[in-house]
Design a protein that fits this description.
Blueprint (H helix, E strand, L loop, with lengths): L4 E7 L5 H12 L2 E4 H11 L2 H12 L5 H12 L6 E5 L5 H10 L4 E6 L2 H8 L2 E4 L4 E4 L26 H25 L2 E5 L3 H15 L10
Parallel strand pairs: 1-3, 1-4, 2-3, 4-7
Antiparallel strand pairs: 5-6
This protein binds P1-(5'-adenosyl)-P5-(5'-guanosyl) pentaphosphate and magnesium ion.
Magnesium ion (MG) binds next to helix 1.
Length: about 220
């Protein structure tokens, strides 16, 4: 069995974690595991976890640690080479410590995007819920307005993308997730990227990953 590369991607809501992750997945073949997508799929199924999580998500609060830890660690058991990219987890210092007890993370990629840019992006975000494919009316609009490029199915806006939830999510990020950035800085695995545009940040992310994992020829699935 080949080796497994373990990465996490950290950044404020709307900083481009999902957008960058889908590029990493298609070029480097890492399995992209988004905690938000996992939760939204539980909500869509109407599961007990989904019903519990929805109350927190819609208000912009974090879902309790124990719920997230159970959900994510179970998924990680299944993943083989070339490895994984965790998007949206860990989001509290406690989650980072529990993850660290189970899996040693090779790289923590951190996106720093100014908050005014984020607020303007999020209001134009549309999503294909079943796949997690992300669109933006100005940055990457769908080919047909309101429809997913691959399936032609309807796009939706996230319930937590309403302005009052976005402000709460930014506050929660500053209070709870910045300590996670410090956690990886102390471990010596933090790599930081600053900018207003994903297309300017991306070449630096790609260059870094090329230096640590070989590119795979992968189909761009989502
Ligand atoms: P999520 O789903 O993890 P957030 O809040 O961390 O949600 P989000 O909103 O998914 O992060 P993102 O993935 O960082 O943002 O950003 P994105 O979707 O790629 O890009 C945002 C928009 O900008 C898109 O429309 C994209 O097309 C566009 N865009 C990208 N780049 C550019 C650019 O250069 N220019 C322009 N103009 N546009 C661009 O978590 C949701 C909730 O789940 C719970 C919490 O309640 C959380 O609030 N949760 C957890 N709770 C506890 N612990 C955890 N670990 C949890 N994980 C999730
Ligand atoms: Mg996302």
């Amino acid at each position: 069995m080949g080796s497994i590369f373990r990465a996490v991607i950290i950044g404020a809501p709307g900083s481009g974690k999902g957008t960058v992750s889908s590029r990493i997945k298609s070029i480097f073949g890492l399995k992209h595991l988004s905690s938000g997508d996992l939760l939204r799929s539980q909500i869509m199924k109407g599961s007990e976890v989904g019903q519990e999580a929805k109350k927190y998500i819609d208000e912009g609060h974090l879902v309790p640690n124990h719920v997230m830890i159970e959900l994510i660690l179970k998924e990680l058991e299944e993943i083989g080479p070339p490895g994984y990219l965790l998007d949206g987890f860990p989001r509290t210092q406690y989650q980072a410590e529990i993850l660290n007890d189970e899996h040693l993370i090779d790289a923590a990629l951190c996106l720093h995007v100014p908050f005014d840019e984020i607020v303007s992006r999020i209001k134009d975000r549309w999503l294909h819920l079943p796949s997690g494919r992300i669109y933006n009316l100005s940055f990457n609009p769908p080919k047909v307005p309101g429809r997913d490029d691959v399936t032609g199915e309807e796009l939706v806006q996230r319930d937590d993308d309403k302005p009052e939830s976005v402000l709460k999510r930014l506050e929660v990020y500053a209070a709870n997730t910045r300590p996670v950035v410090d956690f990886y800085r102390q471990k010596g695995t933090l790599i930081e990227f600053h900018g207003r545009e994903t297309n300017k940040i991306w070449p630096h992310v790609e260059k870094f990953l090329e230096s640590v994992i070989p590119p795979q020829s992968q189909k761009n699935e989502s």
